[in-house]
Amino acid sequence: MSGKPKLHYFNGRGRMEPIRWLLAAAGVEFEESYLEKKDDLTKLRKDGSLLFQQVPMVEIDGMKMVQTRAILNYIATKYNLYGKDLKERALIDMYVEGMFDLNEQLMDYDYLPADKKEQHFANMMDKATNRYFPAFEKVLKDHGQDFLVGNQLSRADVQLLEIILMAEEFKPDILAKFPLLQSFKARISNVPAIKKFLQPGSQRKARERPENVPKVLAIFE
Amino acid sequence: MSGKPKLHYFNGRGRMEQIRWLLAAAGVEFEESFLEKKDDLTKLQKDGSLLFQQVPMVEIDGMKMVQTRAIANYIATKYNLYGKDLKERALIDMYVEGIFDLNELFMNYEIQPADKKEQHFANMMDKATNRYFPAFEKVLKDHGQDFLVGNQLSRADVQLLDIILMAEEFKPGILAKFPLLQSFKTRICNIPTIKKFLQPGSQRKPPTPEEDIPKVMEIFF
């Protein structure tokens, strides 16, 4: 037993990617076990390893944790990325929940049937540029600090960077109207643990290639 | 200013109901401001009161909190319904996230088009009886304690009771195969603050009658 957290998921972003980001930002090394076919998921289920028969599942500190938010809450608290008090945590939670909502939309896109893609794309770009990014631009503007909450790095900053980079993959100039988010992106990208995660060869996953989508869906159906 | 939390939502369950349950279980009195037409939502949006232009919104301790989980996390922490340490919190989070997933299925049932309702119903009943309730029955069986986590009342117990009662509205005998959940239900219903919330005249909301659903949808869409 290595003592490192062990992530169980398919070899792609999906719902595990925010967890990879957070562990990386915290400087925590982790291992991964990839599901490649339905049998791999069935085996985990029969083992009794999955509380609700689903992945993500992360083996950490003697637990088999499931549910993305539960896992992220645990990691964020353990590694001091969750603010210093209840009020900071409230702000972090609000911001992060908004990001989760946008992330759902961005994540779903690659798995949609072709005839639904265009409308979904328009809707998610609209939400990003008219609902979520303006809210975070305003947060940064109002306090003038380098980080979203409490003048120190938190999970909110890590998840916002992740979402910004994902959105830019869909629309490279999506931050055009958000100067503070642009400098935020540069700044957080340069945090050493995050800079390392952004380099080739890290455990950060690429966007799903269209030809792989059926194979991924087959694991979960 | 009364000092009581003030809930902004339509006069129905939706995403606010679990917050009402949590406040009630904690013995916290709260006020409610109901959105009745689209203008009511527009006004709140123009006020700058809604971080992501959405409700639920709860005015509490000088904040205008949005995002159901952020609000629930804050209330649970403040009123000691979130376990006593990080490990208990991890368990609570896992359980509560599973309950959230089942709650989404229940919530979405009412707004399904007529031709999709039957399949949705079958799916949600299947998930309740074959995925979620067995998991919680096992938790209670494995430790033999009265509460889900840490031998004391937590948000997990409150949220599980909420979801059991909702499931029974759809299928009265749904706990037939779950004797421990049946006794859990009786036990948690008898906690004084919860017992009070379950009585007529409390701020607990009934299911939205089918004929009122279009009116509710109009507020939000």
From TrEMBL, chain A:
It is an enzyme of class 2 (transferase). Residues 85-216 form the GST C-terminal domain. Coiled coil: none annotated. Residues 3-83 form the GST N-terminal domain. Its EC number is 2.5.1.18. PROSITE patterns: GST_CTER, GST_NTER. This is glutathione transferase. It comes from Pipra filicauda. Keywords: Transferase.
TrEMBL record, chain B:
Its EC number is 2.5.1.18. PANTHER family: GLUTATHIONE S-TRANSFERASE, GLUTATHIONE S-TRANSFERASE A1. GO terms for molecular function: glutathione transferase activity. The keyword Repeat does not apply. This is glutathione transferase. The keyword Cell membrane does not apply. CDD domains: GST_C_Alpha, GST_N_Alpha. Coiled coil: none annotated. Residues 3-83 form the GST N-terminal domain. Residues 85-208 form the GST C-terminal domain. Pfam families: GST_C_3, GST_N. Belongs to the GST superfamily. Alpha family. It comes from the Eukaryota. One of its GO terms (biological process) is glutathione metabolic process. Keywords: Transferase.
